[in-house]
Design goal:
Elements lengths: L7 H25 L3 H10 L5 H21 L3 H18 L17 H15 L9
């Protein structure tokens, strides 16, 4: 079999698993590094009350929705929840840092937009798991 050595369905699974693991790793690092309080303070500075509660809700959503994506269950709902979190992240954080993430900038929207596109692709190619119990 020629490159990419995967069938279309295997490629879609790889895409879904990759985006899930990237987002879940982000949540896990927030816990491991103990940045929940500082992120909560940042959210409060942006006008959201109970910042730490919001951060824990975001973190839990990232972990649960990521696990659902990995399991191929409720993919559309999980992708929609994560898409919303990422979109709000662009509005609150990344847009102020420009477009580029690496070499040409720091912390911009570029990477987040790529994750959002991956979530849209995962949701669009879901075969109905959103309606299965």
């Amino acid at each position: 079999m020629p490159f990419p050595f995967l069938s279309p369905s295997q490629s879609l699974w790889l895409l879904r698993a990759t985006v899930a693991l990237l987002i879940m790793a982000h949540a896990v690092m927030r816990i491991i590094n103990g940045t929940v309080p500082s992120f909560g303070s940042f959210l409060e500075s942006q006008g959201l009350p109970n910042g730490q509660l919001w951060v824990w809700a975001i973190t839990a959503t990232e972990l649960v929705a990521g696990a659902l994506l990995l399991a191929g269950r409720y993919v559309r709902w999980a992708a929609a929840a994560l898409f919303f979190i990422l979109a709000v992240g662009i509005v609150l954080i990344h847009r102020h840092l420009g477009w580029w993430v690496g070499e040409h900038g720091t912390g911009g929207s570029e990477y987040t937009v790529a994750l959002m596109a991956m979530l849209v692709a995962a949701a669009a190619t879901d075969r109905g798991s959103a309606s299965r119990p």
